[in-house]
Each structure stands twice: as C-alpha cells, then as structure tokens.
# Entry
Amino acid sequence: MTDKYAEPSNYIDRYAVVGNPISHSKSPLIHEAFAKQTNQNISYEHKLAPLDGFEATVRDLIAQGYKGANVTVPFKFEAYNLCDALDSNAISAQAVNTLLFKNNRIEGRNTDGVGLRRDIEQNLGIEIAGKNILILGAGGAAYGVLNSLVGAARIMIANRTLVKALELIRGIQDCEASRFDELDMPYNIIINATSTGLTGEALPLPDVIFNKENCLAYDMMYGRETPFMKQARENGAQVADGLGMLVEQAAEAFYIWREVRPETLSVIQLIRNLPKS
Ligand code: NDP
# Structure
C-alpha cells in the first residue's frame, strides 16, 4: 500500500514505516519535516504489512531499492529476529524499530530509549541521574527504554503480570519488580509504558507513588489525557505525553540513515498543532 507521501522515483532515497495498523502513524509527516529542514531528498511512506507478512514486506522493500524502514506495532520483535546485525540498544531491548538496508544486509537499531531520554532531559529539562524511577508496563516499550535510564538511583518495574516484570529485570542491578497495587513509595519519574492509553483503562495505582516535591509523570501515549495523566495531575505531578519521544526517536532514526541531525522542537510543535483526526 502506498500513499500520498510516496514519490516513486529512481533518484530519491526511499523509506517507509511498516506496521499493522499503520495509516494513523505520524512518522511520514515527521520525516517529511526533517527532510525539508535538512534539504534531504527522500520519500517516506506508510506500508501496511499483513500480520503474517512482515518479512515478505521487508524483502519487497529491499528488492525495490528502499534504504531503510521504521517498524512499529506489532512487528518490533519480529524485526529483531530478521536482522543480520544489531546495535547494543536493539540487543538489550530484544526489539527493533529502525532498519537500515545496506549491501543486501538488514541492520537493526532501537531508537526508543534514546528518544525517551532526550525528551525527558533536553526538552523537559529533567535529569535522569540520581532519580527514583518507576516504569509501568513490561512490554516492548518498557524493554526498549529500560537500558536508556542508566544513572538512575533505582528503577522499579510494575506490571499487571508480575512474572513479565521479573523477566524484564533479570540480571539488571538496582532494578526491582512489583504489582501496581503493591507500590508503596514515591518516585521522581513515572513512565507509563502500558498500552492502557489506547483503551482509556485506568491502572490501580496508589496516590503515594507521586512524589509531592518533585515528580514527572510521563505517558508514552500522546494525543489525549489518559487516566494515568489525570491522576498524576491531580496529585501535583508535572505531566508529559509521548509526542516528544516519538519525534526524538524518529530524529535518531533519521540521523542513522542520513547522518544529519534534524532540529526537533519545531517538529514536535508542528505535530501537536495538527487538527485532531
Ligand atoms: P505491548 O503490547 O508490548 O505491552 C503492553 C503492556 O501494557 C504490558 O505490560 C501489559 O501488561 C500492559 N497492559 C495492557 N493492558 C493492560 C491493562 N488493562 N491493565 C494493565 N496493564 C495493561 O505494547 P508496547 O510496550 O509496544 O507499547 C506500550 C505503549 O507505548 C503503547 O501505547 C505504544 O503506543 C506506546 N509507545 C510509544 C512510543 C513513543 O514514541 N511515544 C514508542 C513505543 C511505544 P501485561 O504484561 O500484564 O499484559
């Protein structure tokens, strides 16, 4: 499936974001803005892969001469298994969101952790080092960002299914696991990496987790206030959504492909100001 962002041409470098569903993805708009800003001659389009056809879709992109692709839900783990080479972020996340097609090989990277850390530290101005951090969720997003939080004083992973949180922290120092309703202390940074933002479900979180002096509540979801963000706001926390992370992880992918670092704040603003669809 191609769309209006596609510009079939022999001389521009082509990229795509592969997922299912995919038409909602803002990645083409983000990369189009980066390309314009940095004078890069690229095209970037949505690519819907059948649920049982991720590898075939990627092989087809390579055959057509594409230079790379982003990978989104539900294919990040499958992408990891497809790669011929992986960077350290992809290895520790066991998931890949950025593919680079080079010399008939597929290189896999994971830029989610870099994106989250840049958004928290550079855009929101909050240091990770020395903080008590709580991550809610133990799925692909939590795996993707955990290793980017080096320097934190302590990390707690809370998940509905405790065994998955225990699996995620295995072998990692200063990291513990809990169920949501057993959390009993305040944190400086709380990251909602569950998919409940998509369904609007509330998590059974005690109010004590929101440090009254200094707390950032960060939801990886963007576009609307989630029950987690509402609870955090009512408990006096600074609240942020995941749009900055989305743009920052895209900027890192753009840099991997083009070796040019785009400016991100204007692009975050551009996407935030889009009419709600
Ligand atoms: P996964 O499906 O891999 O994991 C989902 C997680 O949410 C699991 O921990 C799961 O718990 C938990 N969960 C789901 N439903 C409930 C519920 N009703 N109550 C409690 N916990 C629940 O998804 P991902 O990790 O890939 O994605 C998570 C979110 O992060 C998505 O909303 C995604 O859009 C967002 N994201 C945002 C990015 C950005 O750039 N802003 C980048 C990457 C992801 P359990 O283990 O018990 O099933």
